[in-house]
Amino acid sequence: MIDNRLQELLQQHPSLTKDLELVRQLRLPDWCIAAGYVRNYVWDCLHGYDEETPLNDVDVLYYDPEDLREETEKQWERQLRQLAPTYPWSVKNQARMHLRNQEPPYMTMADAMMRWPETATAIGVYSQPDGRIGVIAPHGSDDLLGLIVRQSPYFQDTSKFLKRVHSKKWLERWPKLKLIE
After folding, report:
1. Sign for the pseudo-dihedral over CA of 60, 120, 136, 95
2. How far apart are CA 6 and CA 161, in angstroms?
3. How does pLDDT run across 27-60, given as a tens digit for each residue?
4. Domain 4-180 maps to which CATH number in 3.30.460.10, 3.40.50.300, 3.30.499.10, 3.30.300.110?
5. What is the domain partition of the chain in residue ranges?
6. pLDDT by residue (tens digit) across 81-123?
7. How far from chain centre, in Å, is Cα 120?
8. Cα within 13 Å of Cα(85), Cβ side
9. What is residue 2's predicted lDDT score, i.e. its pLDDT?
10. Alpha-carbon distances of 33 from 28, 121, 137, rounded to whole Å
């Protein structure tokens, strides 16, 4: 279950509704905006920052096992760049990510997200048919809201996890974070 605090924070996001509408226009199958877009915003809020941390990219995920071509993802990125050229869009079909990760096929988007390096990043948001914000969080939202950086139990490479945390300088940017090794 997703914590009500997360829903409240998402409702306050200054551009979330607009960004979700942009992606919804593509009519992607089983989609969300995820990763740093959600994580950075929540951590910024919980640290009391007035300015949002700049995004390296805006991760748009979808799940389509019928079309695993990388070129399809690039076409979606080009369409989003036309709609919002200031964003660094990154579109990835989670149904094909098992190939890159050399793992058995992922059965759903949540199944793919479970295997991301850290639990607090594996959170996505989408527009529900009634207009409310939906959340995909295969590990829940406790670590994100608790400012905990923890390796996903499904991600096996601890050194890669730690290198990622340190190279992104999360503990410097958000000093209240707790790294659980």
Report:
1. positive
2. 24
3. 999 999 999 999 999 999 999 999 999 999 999 9
4. 3.30.460.10
5. 4-180
6. 999 999 999 999 999 999 988 899 999 999 999 999 999 999 9
7. 9
8. 1
9. 61
10. 12, 11, 12
Residues 148 and 70: their CA atoms lie apart, in Å, by: 33
Do 70 and 96 meet the contact criterion of CB atoms below 8 Å apart?
Answer: yes
Crossing angle (nearest 10°) for helices 70-83 and 16-24? 130
Among candidate residues 29, 42, 15, the one with its CA nearest the CA of residue 141: 42
Supply the angle between the helices 4-12 and 36-46 in degrees, to the nearest 10: 100
Write down the residue that tokens 């670590």 correspond to. Answer: 143
